[in-house]
Hints:
The complex is a heterodimer.
Chain A: E1 8-14, H1 18-27, E2 34-37, H2 64-78, E3 84-87, E4 92-95, E5 100-104, E6 111-121, E7 125-127, E8 140-142, H3 143-153, E9 155-157, E10 161-166, H4 168-179, E11 186-189, H5 193-200, H6 203-207, H7 210-225, E12 228-229, E13 234-240, E14 243-249, E15 256-260, E16 262-267, E17 269-271, H8 274-278, E18 283-286, E19 291-294, E20 307-309, H9 319-336, H10 342-360, H11 363-369, H12 374-377, E21 384-386, E22 391-392, H13 393-401, H14 407-414, H15 427-438, H16 442-445, H17 459-463, H18 469-476
Parallel strand pairs in A: 1-2, 1-6, 2-3, 6-20, 8-16, 10-11, 10-16, 11-12
Antiparallel strand pairs in A: 4-5, 5-6, 7-17, 13-14, 14-15, 18-19, 21-22
Chain B: E1 2-4, H1 6-11, E2 14-19, E3 22-27, H2 32-38, E4 45-46, E5 53-54, E6 67-70, E7 73-77, E8 88-93
Parallel strand pairs in B: 2-8, 4-8
Antiparallel strand pairs in B: 2-3, 4-5, 6-7, 6-8
Amino acid sequence: MTALPRDAYDVVVVGAGPAGMAAAAEAATARVSVLVADDNPAAGGQVWRAAAAGPLADGRVLGKDYAAGGGAATRAFAGLAGAVDHLPRAQVWHLDDRLELGLTLPDCGGAAVVRAGRVVLATGALERPVPVPGWTLPGLMSVGAAQTALKAHGMVPDGRYALAGCGPLLWLYAAQAAAAGAPPALVLDTTPRENRRVAARHLPAFLLSPYARKGLPLLLRARRAVPVVAGVDGFRIERASGGVRLFWTRGQRGEDSATFAAVLLHHGVTPNLNLAVAAGCGLGWQEANACFAPRTDCWGRTTVPGVLLAGDGAGIAGAEAAALSGRIAALAALADLRAVSEAERDGRAAPFRAERARWLRGRPFLDTLYRPAPRFRSAAPDAVACRCEEVTGAQVAEAARLGATGPNQLKAWLRCGMGPCQGRMCGLTVTETIATARGVTPAEVGYLRLRAPVRPVTLAQVASLPRTEAERRAVERL
Amino acid sequence: MFRRLPDAAAAARELPFTLDGEPVSGREGDTVAAALLALGRRAFRRTAVSGAERGPWCLMGVCHDCLVTIDGAGNAQSCLVPLRAGMAVETQRGRREVGR
């Protein structure tokens, strides 16, 4: 594609996961123009990746939530083709408070700028960094990455492999890999024991939520299929012949170790907030999930007028809740555009809100149970904190002792957050490591200030943007 | 580092490409990263700072650790690029070079 069908849309949705697809579907019920721009080759986001046409779309391995829920949602989205422009494999690298978006176009080396009446960010979640010694070695990968290889390509790790960490996705992947005939040889469970006591008081609400029906059988299946070492309070990885060697500790016991072809790590997911921050959206610290998220009102409106946020990008709540929040945000956008009345917006949103509340009931239990221990959220002295610039935990802590108060100062001192990933892999680690070193809260330390371009874009792509004669003269000073 | 489940391997057409000049093949539907992982590749690049070996961490476009050179253009996120027949894929050593 060398050009977009239009240069302005009433609603631009960024991301085609559960929230983005649902937002587009709801927006398309009114007579408005809708664009969905997404990184991926096909709609579905991470959770429903390849659910409509992937190699394991039948659900035998990946489960019926994926096959039925994800399949139906992605097929319904494909059915919107006449009403919604879907731009896959496009990276949105710019959004500003004039609601102008810059995006790269696939396969032509080109780029485009589009103006939006309203923007719905549905940029989803990414996995929390796991800054332990050795996590940058080849053979180490996130659990989410292995699940992507399974969903999109029907691939499993080759040889004996281990999982280490905690969180629902870790158990889901263990169960799915076992169903594919390739269970992990070992699971190191880092769920802090003290979390159970705190989580217990949220258990009744969890049991009343749809998560209980989904999660409990899955957990039992996974735990039956794989050997689990619980109560792991530290681990590290070293290069070894035939793969990598995983070392772990539990309380007073000494260090145990084993060699694996691959080790997959996971410590939960957090909002993917780069585009929202670059657009100027205000952030808040979410203590329950130990992450930052853009502040939103009950419609998903951010602090930037016209920019709404839906799905896990506003706080982790899962695919079903994300889809409902996408519908709610789209209704708010339609009412702002006067495409529906406020009364209609409120009436149509009510059942979505009620259904979303049922899902959210289950979250406090999951959030408190699987909140990674503080020692895993800060970088160990000998662990890489910033993978791009290869900055260690010791360097970050030392800079904090020398007076660096926050991650933005560290950009100038150590370059963390300045590499190609733009802080996605180190942002939370750097904040938590500084907070630990200074003895203050992550909320006081704050987060990286992020700026466009938030995705890699070449000068040639920027130069390919259409420009007016006045713009050319302004630059060339003719 | 990864292997294909038998059903998935049987279903898709083979796509020939080159990896550091060697003729190899992947499958239709692969990303470049998936094809390399199925070929047993663990390290995709050497870092710009220390020259350390790195392989993909996230496979979803976030970590930028799967960067390779594709058809002479460096810094390609191999997890986001669909594999095409005839591609020339190279390990990236350090920074992207000027003109590549």
